[in-house]
Amino acid sequence: MGNIRNIVILTGAGISAESGIDTFRGGGGLWEQHKVEDVATPEAFARDPDLVLRFYDMRREAIQTKEPNPAHEALAQLDSGWKGELLIVTQNVDDLHERAGAKRVLHMHGTHLNAWCTACDVRTPWRDTLVERPPCPECGERALRPDVVWFGEMPYEMERIYGALREADLFVSIGTSGAVYPAAGFVREARAMGVRTLELNLEPSQGTAWFDDARHGQASKLVPQWVDEVLSS
Ligand code: APR
User: Fold this and answer.
1) Which has the closest alpha carbon to 84: 5, 195, 163?
2) How far apart, in whole angstroms, are the C-alpha atoms of residue 24 and residue 184?
3) Which atom of ligand 1 is nearest to the CA of 24?
4) pTM of the model
5) What is the DSSP pairing of strand 170-174 with strand 7-11?
6) Rounded distance between C-alpha atoms, residue 197 and residue 105, angstroms
7) How does residue 2 score in pLDDT terms, banded at 50, 70 and 90?
8) Closest residue (by CA) to atom 8 of ligand 1?
9) Residue 227 contacts by C-beta under 8 Å, 6 or more apart in sequence?
10) CA 137, CA 100: separation in Å to the nearest integer?
11) In this structure, which of 1, 19, 178, 206 has its CB flanked by the most CB atoms within 10 Å?
12) Alpha-carbon distance 114 to 124, whole Å?
């Protein structure tokens, strides 16, 4: 670890699984219970906004009843103890990284806890439901939607993410299946720039072959172990 100064960490649904938040794919995953094309595309929202808003209202309510687990806590510890550059790029739309105390977090797929007004483009912290079409606190229009990146939409802050990857010495991927781009492509981008790569996941992900190292098991075990190694190096 001696020459590692700048770290980029990508997290996915697997890091929140042990907090009781469903993952998307795999047994009993969200996309087994709901069709992506019914609830997670702009077309679905145009076709049946009630169905989409109810889906995200249910998710928004659910995550507020969950707590961070040892994997979130370990990354928050790393965040406060690491002197070099660190960026936690999460695909997750829950706030468990922040509730564990992490500060250097970027939500590339948005967050459940914001409402986004499609009339005035303002994002407002939001913990309640949207299906009854409450007025936007900024402009008063009843045009609020979940601040979540749907399939076919551009993820947030991609320039900042690629900038951090360019400066990184180490890229670590935690709890993600590597099924969804552009996040699934980060390991190859990093590798092409000579960045060391590590996968921490319950099972080999779709991109596991691109990683220099991989450890498989539960995030609540693997992540604290890895953070201890990093901070004691
Ligand atoms: N510890 C570590 N890894 C776990 C655990 C656990 N306890 N439980 C599950 N995993 C792993 C699974 O093996 C799987 O590889 O987490 C991964 C979760 O994969 P997905 O459900 O596909 O979630 P994710 O990769 O985050 O999905 C990416 O797809 O649906 C869209 O926008 C959504 O951000 C999401 C994106």
Assistant:
1) 5
2) 15
3) 21
4) 0.97
5) parallel
6) 19
7) low
8) 14
9) 74, 75, 77, 78
10) 29
11) 178
12) 5
**Cα-to-centroid distance, 22 and ligand 1 (Å):** 9
Q: List, for residues 121-167, the tens digit of each pLDDT value.
A: 999 999 999 999 999 999 999 999 999 999 999 999 999 999 999 99
Query: Is 109 designated active site?
Result: yes
Ligand 1 centroid to residue 31 C-alpha, Å: 11
